[in-house]
Amino acid sequence: MKSIFRGAAYPLIIIGLTVIASIFYWARLLDSQKAEIEAARHLGELQVAQINQAVDQQMDATLRSVDIALRHLRNVYLHNRKDLNRSVQDVLAAYPNKMLDYVVVIRADGYVAYSSTDQAGAKSTHVFLGDREHFLVHAKSNEDRLFISKPIIGRLTGIELVQLTRPIWEGNRFVGVIGIPLRPDYISKNLWSLHIDQNDVISILRDDGNFISRSRNLVAAQKLKMPDDRPFMHSHPGEHGVFRNFSVIDKIPMLFSWRHLASWPVIAVTAIDENSELTGVLNNQSASRKRTLLAIALFLSFSIWVSALFSRISRKSHELSLSEARFRNLLENAPNAMVSIDPGNGRLMQANQIALKMWGYGIEEFLTKTKDDITYPDDLAESQIRNEQLANGVLDTARFEKRYLKKDGSYFWGETCVSTMKDDTGKVNLFIGSTIDITDRKKTEQALNRESAKNLALLLNASDGIHILDIEGNVIEASNSFCVMLGYQHDEMIGMNVRQWDAQFSDSELPQVICEHSNRQTQFQFETTHRRKDGSIFNVEISGIPILLDGKTVTFYSSRDITERKRTERILSELSAHLQVVREEEKSKFAREIHDELSGTLAALKMDASWLASKIPATTAMLPLQNCAKSMGNLIENAAVAMRRIITDLRPPMLNELGLIETFKWQCADFQKRSGIKCKITCFETKDLDCKDSQHCERNFDGMLSIHLYRIFQETLSNVARHSGATSVDAEFEVGKNEVRLSVRDNGCGLPENYLIAPTSFGILGMHERVGQLNGKIKFDNHPGKGLTVTVILPI
Q: Measured by CB atoms within 10 angstroms of the end CB, which terminus of the chain is less buried, N or C?
C-alpha cells in the first residue's frame, strides 16, 4: 500500500515542484527582460548623448574658428583696408573647399562695400543687403555679438547660405557689417560623417527653432520650424537633455538628445531610431519567452511521463550509438577516400583507409594535418574561397576538381564532393569530403586537348576548304584555305551565314537544305556555286557529314574549287555531243547503205532460190536438192529480217517517215512482243498547243532531239527487261509549247536503297549525258520493291 502511495506521490511531488519552479523562473525571466529593455534604452540615451556631444564640440569649434576669422578681418578692414583682399584670400584658403563661400562687408546704408566674389571689372557695390536679417539685427543693436542667420539665397552668388556676421563699429558709430557665409550642405555632409547608423539624424537649429542644417532631408527641414513643445525651444545656453518623440520630418518615433551650445545661439539635436535597436532585443525576448514556455511544457511533460522518457532517452542513446557506429562503418567501407574536417581551423578529424593510402600517411600523422597542408599550393586561393562559402552557409555542397599533395611531395588530381553538417542553430560544424583519384582521367583529357589542337591545326591548314556550320547555317570554324577561296579573312568568316556566299539556293531554300544535311546519317556529296567577296561566282564540290559538337548537331563540310574541272567537263561534253552527232550520222549512213546495197541483192537471191526450187523435179533423187533450194530461200528471208533489224537499231526508218510519236508506239509494241512485258504508251499535247496531228506537233523537233528521246526510251525499256522483273510498263509522252516530257514507270523491284550510280552503269550514264547535251533534266523516282519512274524533260 505504501509503495502504491509512494508511486503515486512521487509524480505529483515532481509535477508540483516543476510548476513552482516554472512560475519562479517565469517571473525572473520577465524581471530580467524588463531590466534588459531599460538597459538598452539607457544605452541608447548614452549613445545619442555622446553623438550629440561630439556634434556640440564640432559646431563650437567651427563657429569659434569662423568668429575668430571675422574678428580678424573686421580689424583689417578698420585699420589696414588695403590688405583686406589678401587677408580674405588667406582666410578662405585656410578652410576646406566649399565650406566658406566668400567674405562680404555691408556699409551702414545697406549697400555692399566689399565682396570677395568680385572679379576684375565687376563690382558688387550696387547690391543692396540692408533688408537682410543679418544686417538689421546689428543695425538695431549696440551689442558686438556673432549672429547666425537661417539659410537664405545669397544675392551675390544665388545659392543657399547661412550668414555668420558681426557689426563694424568706429568708436560709437555703426559703419556696417562683415560676414562670412557658411554652406548648409557642407555642414550636412560633416554631420553625416558622425552617423553610427543610416537612420540617425543630426540637426543644427537656431534658438528660434529654424533649421540651419540637417544630415538628412535638408531641403524639407529648411521649410519647417521646430514646434514649441520641444524641450530645447525654451532652453538656455549650456543646457542639454534627452527626450523621446516623433520626428517632425521623418514621422517616426525617435530618441533625441539636445544641447544648447554655451557660447552660441545654436542648438545641436541628435536623433536615433531607438526602435530598430530595441526590435532586436524585443524579438530575442519574445523568442526567449517562447522557448521558456516550450521548455516549461517539455519539463512538465517530462515530469508526467518520466518513466517513458527515461526509456525513450535510453533507446535514443542506443540508436545514437548505432548511428555513430554506422557512420564509422560507412566511412571505413566507402569506395572513395572519405575525410571529415573541422570548418573552424581546417583540421582533419577522421579519415578512412582509402584516404590514408591515397595521401600516403598513417592515421595519427594524417590527423595532425589541415586541409591546406594537403592542398597543392597553386590551388590554395580558390580552395580557401570555396571553404569560406561552405562555412558561411552560402553553399551546402560543392563538387570540384583540384590537386592534392601526397606525403612524398608528389601530387595527384582529385574530384571531391564536400557536404556540410550543421548544428541546431544552423551553424556549419563539420565538412565531409569524398575524393576519387582522377589523375589518369586528367592525363587523358590533356592528351585529348593536344589531339584537339592538332586537329584544329589540320583543319586550319587543310588544302580543301573546310568549314563547320551550325543548324542555322552560321560558321563555327573555317580553314584558312576556305577563307582564301572566298576572299575573306578568318575573323570575317566566323559567324557569317551560308547565304552570304551561296550563289545557287535562295534565302528561302537554304534553311531547308541545311536541315536536310544535318539530318543525314552518312556522308553526302553535292555540287553548287559560291560567291566570292568580290562578287565573282565559281563552282565547288562539297562533301559533308553531320557530327556532334558539344552536344549539338553541326555539319562538317569540305569544299573543293571545281571551276577548272567544270570547264574541262564542259569541253568534254561538247566533244561528246559532237561525237554523238557524228555517231548518229554514221549510223544513219550505214543504215542507208545497208538498205541500198543489200536489200535488192537479198530480194534477187530470194527470187532466184524460189525459181531454182520450182525448176527441180519432184523426184526422189532430186528431193535433197529441192530441200536445199527451199532452205536457201529461208536463209535469205532470215538474212533480210536480220538486215531490217540492224537498220532499225542503227536508225529506225519510221523515225523519219512516221515521226517520233509513232516510233514510240511501234517500239512499245515491239518491246511487248519480244519480252512478254505489257507495255502501254500515252501521247498527248498541252491544251495551249494547237496540233492537227502528231507530225504537226513535231514540226519544232530537230533530228537530235528525236533520236535522243528515242535512244533514252529504248535504253529505259532495255533496263526494265534486264533488271526490274516488272510485269508492266506505263509510258507517257507530253508535247508542250516549250518542252517535251517523257515518263516511263514500271512495277518492278526498283533500285536498291541508297543506290549510287556505278562507273560501269553505262546505260544510266548515257541517259544523263544525252539529257545534259540538250540542257534538259532527268529524274529517277525510286520506290524499292514497288518500281522505278524515269522522267526526262527536254526544251524544244
A: N
Among 126, 117, 131, smallest CA distance to 177 is for: 131
Average pLDDT over residues 594-601: 66
Grid coordinates in use for 436? Answer: 576519387
Query: Measuring CA to CA, how many Å separate 63 from each of 69, 266, 269, 650?
Result: 10, 10, 16, 127
Using CB atoms within 10 Å of the CB of residue 545, give its burial: 0 to 12 exposed, 13 to 18 middle, 19+ buried.
Answer: middle
Contacts of 557 (CB under 8 A, 6+ apart): 465, 466, 467, 468, 469, 542, 543, 544
Helix (H) or strand (E) segment spanning residue 442? helix 439-461
Please give the Cα distance from 553 to 490 (Å, whole number).
Answer: 23
In the DSSP assignment, the letter for residue 241 is E
Distance, in Å, from the CA atom of 781 to the CA atom of 627, rounded to the nearest integer, reads: 56
Strand order in the sheet with 777-783: 678-685, 728-735, 739-746, 787-795, 777-783
What contacts 236, CB < 8 A, 6 or more positions away?
A: 260
Residue 453's Cβ-count burial label (10 Å; 0-12, 13-18, 19+) is exposed
687 grid coordinates: 491544251
Rg (CA), the chain: 56
Q: Which DSSP letter does residue 34 get?
A: H
CA-to-CA separations, 390 to 320, 433, 439, 609, in angstroms, rounded: 26, 12, 25, 118
DSSP per position, 56-79: HHHHHHHHHHHHHHHHHHHHHHHH
Rounded distance between C-alpha atoms, residue 448 and residue 465, angstroms: 24
How many beta carbons lie within 10 A of that of residue 322, not counting itself?
10
Q: Say which residue the cell 570677395 belongs to.
A: 116
CB-based contacts of 430: which residues, under 8 Å, 6+ apart? 340, 341, 342, 343, 349, 420, 421
Q: C-alpha cell of 481? A: 584555305
Altogether, the residues listed in the chain come to a count of: 796
* Phi/psi of residue 164, nearest 5 degrees: -105, 115
Cβ 309 vs Cβ 302: under 8 Å: yes
DSSP code of residue 476: E
Question: Would you say 104 and 70 are in contact if contact means Cβ atoms under 8 Å apart?
Answer: no
Contacts 24+ apart (CB under 8 A), 478-482: 482/559
pLDDT in tens, 236-285: 888 889 988 888 888 888 888 899 988 888 999 998 887 776 777 778 87
In the numeric block, which cell numbers belong to residue 425?
Answer: 542553430
Q: What's the pLDDT at 232?
A: 86
- 677 is written with which cell numbers? 512485258
Is the CB of residue 345 less than 8 Å from the CB of residue 370? yes
Closest CA to 244 of 258, 259, 261: 258
Residue 194 is classified by DSSP as T
Through-space distance between the first and last CA atoms of the chain, rounded to whole angstroms: 130
What is the identity of the amino acid at 272? I
CB 724 within 8 A of CB 749: yes
Q: What does each C-alpha distance from 313 to 14, 43, 302, 307, 423 come to in angstroms?
A: 19, 45, 11, 10, 20
* CA atoms of 780 and 717, how far apart (whole Å): 14
Q: What is the pLDDT of residue 696?
A: 47
How far apart CA 753 and CA 774 sit, in angstroms, is 29
Measured in degrees and rounded to the nearest 5, phi and psi for residue 549 equal: -130, 115
**Residue 148 confidence (pLDDT):** 92
DSSP letter at 116 equals T
Q: Which residue has the cell 568549314?
A: 467
Mean pLDDT of the chain: 81
Report d(CA 660, CA 770) in Å as an integer.
Answer: 17
Inter-residue contact 48 to 257 (CB < 8 Å): yes
Question: Any idea what DSSP says for residue 474?
Answer: B
For residues 626-641, average pLDDT: 79
Would you say 566 and 581 are in contact if contact means Cβ atoms under 8 Å apart? no
The grid cell for 530 is: 559560291
Distances (CA, A) of 705 to 520, 650, 772, 793, 794: 38, 16, 12, 11, 8
